[in-house]
Lipocalin/cytosolic fatty-acid binding domain-containing protein
Amino acid sequence: MKASVVVVMMCVTLAHANVKPQKDFNISRFAGRWYRVGLAYDSAHFAPYRDKLKASMGVVTVLPNGNVNLSMWEPTPLGCVNQVYQYIKTSTAGQFTYFSRRHNMVKDITVVDTNYNEYALVLKHRVFHREYTQVALYGRSQTLKNSIIQKFKAFALSQSFPRESILTPPPAAWTLRAEPLDPEPVIQTQENFDLGKFMGKWYQVAAVSTCPCYMKRKSRNPEMFPVVLQHVGSELNFTKTATIFRNGTCKQMTSRYSLTNTPGRFFHHVSRFGADVDSFVVGTNYEEYAVMLQLSRDQRSGEKSTNILLYSRTMNVTSALLDDFKQLVEEHGISGDTIIINQNNGECVPEGAGEQR
């Protein structure tokens, strides 16, 4: 009997050890918003909760060093719970490691199969252990083709998961709205918003916030700076690269914004400050100015704040535009006297490739 058990465990371990990552894995194409729509997990502790599992949402953010932040939102009876995981790159593209606080161990993550714009099959912990190993199916939307669902189930079965542990949970009510943060804000974005026309180079010329820490940071260095927005047509996100003079050095900082189902509304996570940010382009004529309203939430404290930013295609801003911006700020209950007007000191020349926010 013991010999049979050993043979079975050796076969299971070998099956997982032979799993290879997606060929020519491209982390940039993999970034952005995903929904976890399938899960194979045979943990005895998890079994009683199988029928309570709901689809969850995550945002993958690539760091400059090749590591990855995954922000996951899990619907619970008490509301939406957010957790952030950092996956450490390995020498093999498509394979990462991370430290599981729950199990107090290092696990490996393998992106087994993905076409980037529809689905991804991910294996967590290749050395099989029923308490630690999972297979997850992610989709760019909550509705996937039946052929993809069957591919997920077949792969899970090939990895020795019993059929009853292979789940395709129903959507959660909050994810049906396809909004990354609390659905309660109703903010009107620019009518007939055109993402393509919004891309390109802008200068941040003014800013105001209800967050004292944000205002303190901005007041230390109130200089106008350029941002470049770039979007690849097939991607579900775009990048914003800001060139900023900080601490005597010119630096580039890149943020990745995920698109939502609402044109002109975006989401990104600021890992430096542990904040989730919902951004709305509330006004733009694309050729001269753009006004962005941001709702930010600190993950640790839960505190919320509002930022309102004014961008211009040039470094020369008319007083009429600044007056209109001040009026909009006051309409949102923020004193116009607190607006920080960035000074035009010219553009600095960056050193190196930049850092990730």
